[in-house]
Amino acid sequence: MNEDIDKLCTNNASINVFDSFLDQQEAKVVLPDEDRQKPFTEMEDIGAIGLFDNFVPWGFCDQVVDSYEFWYNKKHILGEETATNMNDKFKMQHMQDGEQQFQGAGGTLRRKDRALYLELADTNLACTVNNYIGQAFQIYQTKYPGILGDSADPVSSWTCKVQKTDPGGGYHQWHSENGCYMYRDRVLTWMIYLNDIPYESGGATDFFHQKRSFQPKKGSLVLWPATFTHVHRGSFLTGDRSKYIATGWFSREPGQVTNRVIGEKMGKYTPTGREEFKGPPSLA
Q1: If I label 233, which of 13, 89, 143, 267 is the partner at 20 to 30 A Cα–Cα?
Q2: DSSP SS3 for 176
Q3: Beta-sheet strands, E only, within 98-220
Q4: Residue 273: pLDDT band by 50, 70, 90 thresholds?
Q5: Does domain 44-266 have CATH number 2.60.120.620?
Q6: How far apart, in whole angstroms, are the C-alpha atoms of residue 46 and residue 140?
Q7: What is residue 269's predicted lDDT score, i.e. its pLDDT?
Q8: Which of 89, 92, 96 is closest to 120 using CA atoms?
Q9: In angstroms, rounded to a whole number, what is the distance separating the alpha carbons of residues 63 and 49?
Q10: What average pLDDT is seen over the chain?
């Protein structure tokens, strides 16, 4: 009996030593360079296109993609309702089919993708996206202060559209983001690449006048003017990998009638001064 107890104690001690050994080995694991995200350094200015390489953590990009897939499956696989009731008579759908934009005028030859409005589906994730966007905007407007000049009304970004393009799809129509009357207040466009697309698979964002194409690179953020000087398109996507982006716009607010100004007058909102940019949130 005593011998059995001694053996059990010895075995338990061995297990503890082995577990300790594994813990030490796990602590020594070092990812290869290609599996580690490099830190953001500075904005690259390419004809007023602001490129922020490695600005958004890869792990957060994965969370946004997972949110899209959750809501897509909920609507298109499970057939469940995915809408937010705004009032008794109106509700807003979380998902949008991009090819509906050009029905009867080229259809999928001009656009083929699907989108999730993150501000409706997952406000916490949308707020985090806006945090990254806001910090990039601070850097951009330091280079181009006329966006918030003394004679300019404020801008804001509310929409956060997570867009998925499957192979064979894309937004192939050359366009600017404020090219129609409905969107005339758009000032600046933002986009985050949520996954990598190899060069040979296409899927780049092409800018006509700048003669530049940007290949999707996970964690990179791009800002550009929403007007005709920055006409662009999405190039055709091939291969076997879908492309994910998050995108939206900074739009001009009518300075004296916004909820923000009304809130200030009522004492419900306290405006804060612009803080010095200290870098994007940690990649840890």
Answers
A1: 143
A2: coil
A3: 111-112, 114-117, 155-156, 161-165, 170-171, 186-193, 205-207, 212-214
A4: very low
A5: yes
A6: 12
A7: 45
A8: 92
A9: 26
A10: 81
